[in-house]
Each structure stands twice: as structure tokens, then as C-alpha cells.
Amino acid sequence: MKARVHVMLKNGVLDPQGEAVRHALGAMGFDKVTGVRQGKVIDLDLVEGATEADVAEMCEKLLANTVIERYEIELV
Question: What Pfam families does this protein's entry cite (predicted)?
């Protein structure tokens, strides 16, 4: 089984990397972009019997800083 975890900064948390990308896109002539939020995707290979709850525990303890980040789990 595989799981894909999407980690993004929570709304309202300043995203300096996203802002740098937005600025660079504007400098390259892509002036239709008004905002960028940058995150990360983590792919996990899991043993048979692993559950979404197991992945959520991994996120809470290591994969996401839940003070400033939110995560979504996708089982694939």
C-alpha cells in the first residue's frame, strides 16, 4: 500500500518561499499570478495492514509541523 501526504502552510501563515516564486514569475512576465503557496508531497510505501490512522500519527509526530502546517492523506 502507498500513501501520499500533502503538507501545506495553514492559511494566514506567511509563506516566504511562495512569495519568492510569485515574485520570480512576475519578473519573468507571468503577471496573471497573484499568489503562490508552496508545500511538499511525501510518498510513503507501507506494509500491508497499515491504516490511514497510522499515517496520521506519522504526520502529527514528524511529517508536519501542525502548529503552522496542515496535511492531507491520500491512500493510493
Answer: PurS
Q: Which three cell numbers stand for residue 14?
A: 506567511
The three cell numbers of residue 16 are 516566504
pTM of the model: 0.88
C-alpha to C-alpha distance for 62 and 58, rounded to whole angstroms = 6
Provide the pLDDT confidence category of residue 30 given band limits of 50, 70 and 90: very high
Map out the domains of the chain as residue ranges: 2-75
DSSP assignment of 11-34 equals: TTS--HHHHHHHHHHHHTT-TT--
Q: Kindly report the backbone phi and psi dihedral angles of residue 46, in degrees, each rounded to the nearest multiple of 5, phi listed first.
A: -115, 155
Strand, coil or helix: 52: helix
